[in-house]
Amino acid sequence: MKKKFKIVVKTELCKRCSICEYICPNSVFQMKDSFLEIYDERCKGCNICELICPDCAISVIREEKNETIYSRK
Amino acid sequence: MKKEWRTFLREKYLPHRWCAGCGNGIILNVFVHAFSEAGLNQDKTVILSGIGCSGRITQYLNFDTIHTLHGRAIPLATGIKLFRPDLNVIVFTGDGDCMAIGGNHLIHAARRNIDLTVIFINNQIYGMTGGQLSPTTPLHSKTKTSPYGNKETPFNVTELVISAGATFVAKFTTYHARELKRGLVKAFFHKGFSFVEVISACPTRWGLKPVEALESQKKEKVGIIKPSPSNTD
Amino acid sequence: MKQFIHGNEAVVRAALDAGCNFFAGYPITPSSQIAHKMAELLPQRGGIFIQMEDEIAVINTIIGASMAGARAMTATSGPGLSLMQESIGYSAITETPLVIVDVMRAGPATGIPTFPSQGDVFSACYGSHGDYPVVVLAPVNILEVYSLTFKAFYIAEKYRVPVIVLIDGITAQMKESVSLPNMNVSESDKPKRPHLGEGIRHHTTGLIHGEDGMPIYDPQLYKQVMQKLMNKIQTEELMMIQREGKESAQIFFITYGICYRSAKEAVCELEKQGISVGLIKLSTLSPFPDKKLKEFVKGAKKVIVPEMNMGQVVKEVERCLCNECEIVSVNSLGTLMEPEVLIEEAIK
């Protein structure tokens, strides 16, 4: 299935609070012991992770237009 | 053309100094998204903060920023707005800064209906100084200065600010990030004193995991209290 | 052309002539008339007046306005100055120009609101915590109230410091016939400084900071910052001090504010008796003009420091002269310093 959204995480900013894992309605994130696993094929583009990440580490990019959700408006 | 949200951050100073899962981080993020959506002029905006963990937010914001004395961001903002009414003036403040030492300035600014946007980051504790009680700490809570349980009733903040004369009052939590973003945009455009209370989280001082702290906010009633919903367009 | 002017009114005239366009105040005896006059005249000239809820709000409001580019001032008295101290330190560390007129009344605490004094010298020079640059000026009569208040704005903007003008309650509340000097500064001489709303996007903080505005945590850097800040005001231009009378006099009066006038009267009387006494007028109390003072009173056997307090500037004089001669403190509380008292002291 073609991926509609790409999740870009600035890992150098991530403090592993796991709020992304908790808040995502589609289980895109899984906080493992040594890294953050991302299943962006599940992403529906709601953008809540980008908005709520306390470290401003996440960007949700719309694949086909290579633009962020935000830039649609 | 609207600017992308990251342009409003001073990225060279990230990662920020706050703990993992800090409510201040969420508010910083939501704020820059809201500012981007609002499309206001970055160079005609001044952002102030007081003292406390919330006070550190200005360091990470790519604007004319001012980190003021404890409790005094609001009068400083008043001076700026009076002299330069063309500037957007936004104040971030915290428990002590807004409701304790800064309380008097808050109620007078509300009474004057000065065109400021005050974002009150309420984490119900004094985080930076080690976890002492604040004027918004719930009754019976155990903190460093209430080891036997807090005997003081906390303020009902939004009621206080409304009766002081504020003309835009809203309450959100860091869990309700989308509603907070929309509320902030409305607050920016409101002409008059706008006050947005954000129930935030201090996982470190509360002794909770970030996710647990956020979960505890789920049931809060949020939204714009004044003007009352039937009056909004 | 001579005009019969009230002391507090001279403050207002000087401020307006210097381009003051922002005043925030809180009423306090004996300076309230300055606020009244500003409330009336500033709006007529497109300036802003606001009465704030307390002195702490006042000082922070004028700091904000100054950061936004205003030529801002306030007027208060001892109790108000005490409340403003933390923010004076903030103005110093953020290098925000500010003018504060302090009309001194008898202290401490509520004191005697309607009694004059010179009791706020230490408060003005050293009132805030930590080390910080502050310029403190002391006019001796209504002419100087005008000229030094005018100059205060220029000093504040050029050096980017808080400037406190100390006026005793008598000078503020009396009227004198004066010819106001023409003190206009040409546009090209007016100091220029950056301010908010220009897109600079600078961070300002009360934390000790480096050139990028961000907090610093290195002790060496901290010392460098403090040295630079304190040295800023160690200039000839700021250390205003004058000597009158015989250069090689054996006795000197070291005076400031209204006591200068009492001492001047005493000097005239003593001359008639054939006794030569020198007279020093300190127009600047901070930065204290150590070098010039030492030079002026070199060789003197005795210096007399008349003050309307329990002895404040005399402590600076003692520090400065290191007991090179006899130093006498003469104190008058709540009332004018009598020339007779000074004459008696000089003759002793």
Structural overview:
The complex is a heterotrimer of chains A (73), B (233) and C (348). Chain A has a single domain (5-67), classed as Alpha-Beta Plaits, CATH 3.30.70. Helices cover 14% and strands 25% of the residues of chain A. Chain A has two helices and five strands. Chain A has a three-stranded antiparallel beta sheet with strand order 1-4-5. The radius of gyration of chain A is 12 Å and the shape is globular. Chain B has a seven-stranded mixed beta sheet with strand order 2-1-3-4-6-5-7, sandwiched between helices. In chain B, 56% of the residues are buried. Chain C is α/β, with parallel strands linked by helices and 348 residues long. Chain C has two domains: 2-188, Rossmann fold (3-Layer(aba) Sandwich), CATH 3.40.50.970; 242-347, 3-Layer(aba) Sandwich (Rossmann fold). Chain C is 38% helix and 23% strand. In chain C, strands 2, 3, 4, 5, 6, 7, 8 and 14 form an eight-stranded mixed beta sheet that branches. Chain C has a five-stranded mixed beta sheet with strand order 11-13-12-15-16, with helices on both faces. A two-stranded antiparallel ribbon of chain C has the order 1-9. In chain C, 51% of the residues are buried. The model of chain C has no long low-confidence stretch (mean pLDDT 96). Chains B and C meet through strand 2, helix 2 and helix 4 of B and helix 3, helix 4 and strand 10 of C. Strand 2 of chain B pairs parallel with strand 10 of chain C.
Brief characterization of the structure:
The complex is a heterotrimer of chains A (73), B (233) and C (348). Chain A is an alpha+beta fold and 73 residues long. Chain A has one domain: 2-Layer Sandwich (Alpha-Beta Plaits), CATH 3.30.70.20.
Fraction of residues in helix of chain B: 25-40%
CATH topology of chain B, anyone? Rossmann fold
Tell me which oligomeric state these chains represent. Answer: heterotrimer
Total DSSP E strands of chain B: 7
Strand content of chain B: 15-25%
Given the helix and strand composition of chain A, which structural class is it? alpha+beta
* Count of the domains of chain B: 1
Strand order of the largest sheet of chain A: 1-4-5
Top CATH class of chain A:
Alpha Beta
Mean pLDDT of chain A: 88
- How many individual helices of chain B? 8
How much is the average pLDDT of chain B? 96
Q: What does the largest sheet of chain B look like?
A: 7 strands, mixed
**Shape by Cα distribution of chain A:** globular
| CATH H-level superfamily of chain B | Thiamin diphosphate (ThDP)-binding fold, Pyr/PP domains
Low-confidence stretches of chain A: none
The shape of chain B is: globular
CATH architecture of chain A: 2-Layer Sandwich
User: Would you identify the CATH architecture of chain B?
Assistant: 3-Layer(aba) Sandwich
Radius of gyration of chain B: 17 Å
